[in-house]
Design brief:
alpha/beta; Amidase signature (AS) enzymes; Amidase; AS_sf; Aspartyl/glutamyl-tRNA amidotransferase subunit A
């Protein structure tokens, strides 16, 4: 698909449409949608900003590429003066006191926020069912889950309710719902985009990620949001990715894939056969393909959840109703804390907090948490060795197709295993992009750290190959 951002930009410049009519059209679609993607509409703000864009066009002033482009925001990002609920009961009335760096950069570029989008509460889930706003319904088949945790963001893009959306990816939360809804979703290199103003789930793997319908739109949005931020010490300065640099696959010679992912008993037979067919198409284009050995998927999942649960238990300890959220008073302070958290957190969030506290507790931290840290280091080292042999790693996004709504809630363990092919790249802090080709839930393209450009380059090549 062509760049929607560029198409709309040209329509605005040529006065074929007005920004106000464009925003009104998108807001109407969001109001009428039956996929449960909306937590709150930002209609007043959006229309005010649209009027300013129209006034600028009327004066003949130059319009920036993102000016007037409507977008959605996963409801875990701060946007000053708007509700930021994390789809949770605890924060259902919380209003942001400031704006996240990544979102502010988009606002500074003139993009127009339309909606805070439904998601798994605090990012805890892989289906967008763990939410007080009702399960997000898949864009292709509403009987199936929208994926998670950025389900609302992916569905809004797939249904053209937003031109692009900003999700958050901790262990696959942009890539998996993008695959479930046949759109592009990027987890950039960890630290490329500031996390300031993103509600922390697991701080060591949390990433700000764009979701869109074309590689070019992903590139445009990534460039705007990237850069060093003094408010996030993990960020670094990165070079702009130019359009001409990703227009061909020059420099990419060897593609790798993890054979144990494909030989796993857990993988759906159709996803397996489609993936192998995609590999054959890549070979036919003259690329060398190499089978790689990697950690078993169950080791990746257990390592990821060990560390993620520990970090979320720590990060959510501040939410006790004192400074944030709906406080429930009881007979003393300790009981007030306990009942506030018990009544306001989802079952999945409580499961992860309990698991995290167990992992960090005396007598278990050495045996479990420190072992998880050691495995993470080993996983990163394995990736470093792999990328000495290959330029790109290609993999399925998920081992299975989207489940029916309700099934994941009955079997949390199966939900965790749906992340088997995404969490490893999160632990390695690598740039990884879901593309809507190759299998029913897409393909993942991964490169070594700071090689986000290479990922977009190969994605551009594959869109005309598979």
């Amino acid at each position: 698909m062509k760049s929607q951002i560029r198409t709309i930009h040209q329509q605005l410049v040529n006065k074929e449409i007005t920004c106000t009519s464009l925003v009104q059209e998108k807001l109407s679609l969001l109001k009428e949608n039956t996929n449960n993607t909306v937590n709150s509409l930002l209609d007043t703000l959006a229309l005010e900003l649209a009027a300013k864009v129209d006034a600028k066009i009327a004066k003949g002033e130059t319009l920036g590429l993102l000016e007037g482009i409507p977008f959605g925001i996963k409801d875990v990002y701060m946007l000053q003066g708007t509700y930021t609920t994390a789809s949770s009961n605890l924060l259902k009335n919380y209003k942001s006191a400031y704006t996240a760096t990544a979102i502010q950069k988009l606002l500074d570029a003139g993009a127009i926020p339309l909606v805070k989008e439904n998601c798994d509460s605090f990012g805890h889930g892989s289906s967008s069912e763990n939410t007080i706003f009702g399960a997000v319904k898949n864009a292709i088949n509403p009987d199936l889950v929208g994926g998670g945790s950025s389900g609302g963001s992916a569905v809004n893009v797939a249904k053209d309710y937003t031109v692009f959306s900003i999700g958050g990816d901790t262990g696959g939360s942009v890539r998996q719902p993008a695959g479930y809804n046949h759109v592009y979703g990027l987890k950039p290199t960890y630290g490329r985009i500031s996390r300031y103003g993103l509600m922390a789930y697991a701080s060591s793997t949390d990433c700000v990620g764009p979701i869109a319908k074309s590689v070019e739109d992903i590139r445009i949005i990534l460039n705007v949001m990237s850069g060093k931020d003094t408010k996030d010490q993990t960020t670094y300065a990165s070079e702009e990715i130019k359009e001409e640099n990703i227009s061909n696959a020059n420099g990419i010679k060897t593609i790798g894939y993890f054979k144990n992912f494909i030989e796993s008993d857990a993988i759906n037979s159709k996803i397996k056969s489609d993936f192998l067919a995609s590999i054959e198409k890549v070979k036919a284009k003259g690329f060398k393909v190499k089978e790689l050995d990697f950690f078993k998927s169950d080791i990746l999942v257990s390592t990821y959840y060990t560390l993620a649960m520990a970090e979320t238990a720590s990060n959510l300890s501040r939410l006790d109703g004192s400074n944030y959220g709906n406080r429930i008073e009881d007979k003393n302070l300790k009981e007030s804390y306990a009942i506030t958290r018990s009544e306001n957190f989802s079952e999945e969030t409580k499961r992860r907090i309990v698991g995290g506290n167990q992992v960090l507790s005396q007598g278990f931290s050495d045996e479990i948490y420190l072992k998880g840290l050691a495995l993470r280091d080993a996983i990163s080292e394995n990736f470093e060795n792999d990328f000495k042999e290959v330029d790109i790693i290609l993999s399925p996004v998920t081992p299975s197709t989207p489940p029916k709504i309700g099934d994941s809630l009955k079997d949390p363990h199966a939900m965790y295993l749906s992340d088997a092919y995404t969490v490893g790249f999160s632990l390695g802090q690598l740039p990884t992009l879901t593309i809507p080709q190759g299998t029913e839930t897409g393909l993942q393209i991964t490169a070594s750290k700071n090689n986000d450009e290479l990922v977009l380059k190969f994605a551009n090549f594959l869109k005309d190959t598979i």
